[in-house]
Amino acid sequence: MERAQERAAEINGADAATGGPGRPAVAGAESAGTALELLVHGVGGTTPQEMLDDPRTVRITGDDTAAVFRRAEDVDAEDRPDDYRGKPVPEAYVWCNLTSGNSARALWLLLLPFMVVNLAHWMRPTARGRERTVRLYGLLVRLAGLTLTVLLVAAACEVALDLTAWQCAGTRACAERHSWLGFLSPVASEGGWWSHPGRRLALAALVPTALTGLLWYLSRRTWSAYESQQPMSREPEPDEVSGRTSLGRPGFWYGRRLVARLRAAHTAAGLLTVTAAVGSAAARFDRRPGGPALLDTLGWLLHAAVIAGATVVVWVVCRRGRSENRLDQELDERLVRRLPLASLVLLALALVYAGWDRPGWQSADRLPGDPTFGAIAFLQGLIVIVLAVVAHLLHRTDPDPRAAMRGLGGPAVAMLACALGGVMSGGVSQRVADWLDGTGTSIAGPPVLLTWQASVIPPLLVLLLLLCGWLAWRAWRLRRTELGTVELDYAAEPRDTARTRRIASTRAMATLTDRAPLVVAATSTATLLLGAGALVGALTSDQTPSQAAEGAYAFVHGGAQTAQALGSWLIGVGFILFVTWGRRAYKDASARRTIGILWDVGTFWPRAAHPFAPPCYAERAVPDLTWRMATWTRAEEGRRLVISGHSQGSVLAAAATWQLTPADRKRVALLTYGSPLERLYGRWFPAHFGPAALTSLHAEVDCWRNLYRITDPIGGPVRLPGDCGPEVDHDPLKDPLAYGRTPEHPLPAPILGHGEYQADPEFAKERQKLLERLRPEVPGQRPESAP
Hints:
This protein is mainly α. Helices cover about 55% and strands about 5% of the residues. It comes from Streptomyces cyaneochromogenes.
């Protein structure tokens, strides 16, 4: 271990040995031309022992969260260059703990809507020369994220203030069933101090306030661990202005300032939502004819202060705070500290105002929640529609035929984020209302709009089932076609019908990934239309669907009753399953690993639209890889490096390569396998991984080779245009390696799909070719047709 620590100190001090980044290396004991293969794993993570195929591994740099490992016998490889002639020194970068390390991260499931809306920010189409339109796109997504925060806190207010403190505690039958509410009930407590409606609301307001504080705490803690990891400093490149990709800009993976600003704004928005919920109920009572003039004036002042605070919050969210062209190390400390503090002070004043003694004030019916939830739903739908128009305009300026949904992927995903927020909010309200009111007659229940929204879930599920059936039929037809293709691919083998069917089925199922845009488009469109219908029905009737359908045809009335009952049941069961899954993941490491796979894909991007989203692990992983690659290539003239990325690791490898200087990139070879760079990221994030961006990456590194299989549902070809396409993409690897039993494979060879690319003989051949191109003397020569 002491030897490993000494070696780690040498590696971390590489810049000092070279006189600093970009300076000539001093003479040392290490020999020029040593090659390094830096392995980066994919989704779900793995162990360094599996990556290096050796049970004895040593951490040479990093910590318990993310680190670089070597085999024990390779720790001092630089001191023994003769032992590594013709073969690379393997290293493994393990980053799985960034997304699935401890059990508390399973609670990130509750932040799913925030994560989805943050993805929509990065899905904008490619556009050049439309900076204002691009800024408008980002502004609209940030506003959608703000509405999700307000919706979540409003749902907490609905549960704590309306259903519990206002309705149940104010109703004798409901309060008697729940003895823990006795001190809040005017009857059970015989007019106790806390039984006053305003004081009940003030006490219940602690629940949504605590929720807002928890979100602030989680965001700040992860902000300190992720967004505060500084990337390697360097000067911007002239090519970065061309718009090929922004992932290579110095400040792209350092969003410390923007996340802090957004965190302050969203925290203030949550506190102002609680303030409005508490103060509006008291102000409505004070505005009655003959009410106290002083309290009425205070109510209007409180209302004006809430509007002023909301205006400041919207201004902060709208103002562009992301500076990718430079490493922005500034922090608006006054804004970050004072805005949430001012909102908290305003909330405290509202609690005092609501708790003032008001003789004759009694709780009845519901708090005014329908207008609030209706306004949020209307605003979200309007934002999504305008966002779709902006995305269409951007796509028209530089059309990309491979872009998902013709550039409308971002608006569609933003719509799904809003739908997820509505389902989770409505699910909590429905379940709490059913729990408090077992008979269904003692309290009025949640706002009518939430019942309408729950009622549209059954028809949406029917649509999804029909769509899944159609996809299954397409996959079955493709499987029939693949049966003949498999027989041609293994023409010399004896026929095995069952084996052929398994291979053909695997190939057909792997193509379903390419149908994801159709599923998202259909789901988001149906959600928008059904949500609009629910909003109109709730506002025009002010009744639940079953009540509004009374007097209509029996079929219509029965359908409304069925949809309402089934929707309430489904939304409740879905929420219970959601919480159960999170609780299981809290205790079960394997389930936690499954959730980690979801975050591996969803939290790659920085938190640009919502500060309460799960943190971006790439803001730690990409600087780690960049530092390791730069210190290796700069340590000595002639150093060679192959960065080998599998699945999501290939995306991290590409992002880290873009962060290098042009001179460093020319000394790097890129080997990707099972890579979603074009198949997923290129289609869904065309502005950052589109054809222009991937073509520039191929031109800037020394060489690049991509391996994939037809049976892989995630990885695929890079599809670069022109002659550089075949140069990068290898022909599809054979899977399985053997159709039947052979001397080399006496047991049936498995269908590998997305895993175990290194087990294929072609992997070692392609890696060796890349190392041979990276000569110590001069960079590898490119074909003249390469860009």
